[in-house]
Write a structure and sequence with these properties.
Layout (H helix, E strand, L loop, with lengths): L4 E3 L1 E6 L2 E6 L6 H10 L3 E4 L3 E4 L2 E3 L7 E4 L3 E4 L6 E9 L23 E4 L6 H13 L11
Parallel strand pairs: 3-9, 9-10
Antiparallel strand pairs: 1-5, 2-3, 2-4, 5-6, 6-9, 7-8
Length: 147
């Protein structure tokens, strides 16, 4: 059996769907996670994610903790684990995705679709929701040939 991987990331759940937020320190993972929680998502893990067989969970020492820059570390309700269905690579201009990027490639580590996302955009939370809707088949992500 494979050992869990410990990844520098954050994770939120919308029902049974998990999205991992990946980026370097200071890229906005915790801030976007806070906005997702405010929009009704569940906290799974902040700053460190244990990934095992496609399931994300927090390391025991960090379970239920969220770092809110400028305020401190907050203890709150959290979800024990969630199946990761998408990964958001947090990027900022000028590295932001082109207007019509190619179809998302599977992430090498998780195998789930990886999307590029600017966490500072006001629409970042809505974009995460659209990503999850596309992965679940509730919306359809078109490529240039389908337009």
């Amino acid at each position: 059996m494979n050992a869990p991987l410990h990844i520098h990331a954050s994770c939120a759940a919308r029902g049974a769907q998990g999205v991992m937020l990946v980026g370097p320190s200071g890229s906005g993972k915790s801030d976007l996670l806070l906005r997702l929680i405010d929009a009704g998502y569940a906290l799974v893990a902040d700053d460190q994610v244990c990934l095992h067989a496609g399931w994300a969970s927090p390391p025991p020492a960090l379970a239920g903790l969220l770092e809110v820059r400028g305020i401190g570390i907050i203890r709150m309700a959290w979800q024990q684990r969630v199946r990761v269905v998408a990964l958001a690579r947090l990027v900022a201009p000028p590295d932001y995705a082109p207007r019509l990027p190619p179809a998302p490639e599977p992430d090498a580590l998780t195998g789930v679709p990886a999307f590029r996302l600017d966490p500072a955009r006001p629409s970042a939370v809505a974009r995460v929701g659209l990503i999850l809707d596309c992965v679940a088949g509730r919306s359809q992500l078109l490529d240039e040939r389908q337009m």
